[in-house]
Write a structure and sequence with these properties.
alpha/beta, three-stranded parallel beta sheet, three-stranded antiparallel beta sheet, 10 strands, globular
Length: about 300
């Protein structure tokens, strides 16, 4: 890849592009221009059920209307499952993955029983309980029997084992600021996520795995994204170490919020680019709102 600084805007086409997306895309474009670098567009569409061609076309139209340009071609993750499968196979060869069969209901019951007995069960930064990891103790034969039975499962990372195998401690360079002002050299804490899903039976990847593989294959040097992904960087740095991938620079930016102090989401129709356009705002008006961080 080129030595030039490479940035990327990577939305998921599972809903309408909103003002917060426009802000992130604009910031990536501005930082790429300032560095005389390149901005890429990547569509993170591994969820082939929720991500649709209709949303993809609408996103592209909205970005074009805003005047935000990127270097072709657009990378669609759904076209690169083989890349992720290769990374998954490498982690399996390192004996860092195990098949996990508990359903969400099973997990809730397990955690409720532990907490009912007075045990404080750990939760990840999003508030979800850590996976119990009962299958870590299963023999190879038990795992193979369960897989052969056709029971649905996901491949999870044995995070304790993975951390022991990776460089310790792991850091990243934060050029922006985290949710509570973290900046500079940040120590990664991947264990806060527990044993994350890296693939499912029918989809050979997950967000965590595909994003680090894509960033490496595309030569991304600078990852500019919102505060909501700050803590995910800990898991991404662990995977980069395990797979011997380059370490990008990170810049996490503030999230645009609605009038109630909540971050914008794709369900917020009144802040979608399409809706703002229908209300008579020009592209310049929308970009000005992004730059001033105002919400409407």
């Amino acid at each position: 890849m080129s030595d030039k600084d490479i940035f990327r805007f990577a939305p998921s086409p599972n809903g309408a592009l909103h003002l917060g997306h426009a802000y992130s895309a604009l910031l990536n474009r501005q930082m790429a221009d300032k560095a005389h670098g390149t901005m890429l567009l990547r569509l993170e569409d591994i969820d082939t059920t929720r991500c649709t061609t209709e949303y993809e076309m609408q996103m592209l139209q909205d970005l074009h209307w805003l005047g935000i340009q990127w270097s072709e071609p657009v990378r669609r993750q759904s076209a690169h499952f083989d890349d992720y499968r290769q990374a998954l196979d490498r982690l399996q060869a390192m004996q860092l993955l195990y098949p996990a069969f508990l359903t969400r209901g099973d997990i809730r019951k397990f955690v409720a029983a532990r907490e009912g007995a007075g045990f404080q069960w750990p939760r990840d930064p999003d508030g979800a309980p850590h996976y119990p990891g009962v299958e870590r103790q299963y023999s190879t034969g038990q795992r193979q029997d369960l897989i052969g039975s056709g029971k649905p499962f996901a491949w999870r990372l044995d995070v304790k084992k993975a951390c022991a195998m990776a460089d310790d401690p792991i850091f990243w360079e934060e050029l922006g600021r985290g949710p509570i002002g973290q900046t500079g050299r940040i120590k990664a804490e991947p264990s806060i996520w527990g044993d994350v899903i890296l693939a499912r039976k029918d989809v050979p990847t997950s967000y965590h795995l595909s994003v680090v593989v894509d960033d490496a294959l595309q030569g991304v040097s600078d990852i500019v994204r919102g505060h909501d992904l700050f803590h995910a960087t800990s898991m991404h740095r662990l995977l980069q170490c395990l797979l011997e991938l380059p370490t990008p620079r990170y810049h996490h930016h503030r999230l645009l919020q609605d009038g109630f102090g909540r971050k914008l989401s794709k369900s917020d129709g009144d802040t979608s680019i399409r809706q703002l356009r229908a209300r008579g705002l020009s592209a310049d008006d929308v970009l000005a709102l992004c730059e001033s961080s105002q919400t409407i």
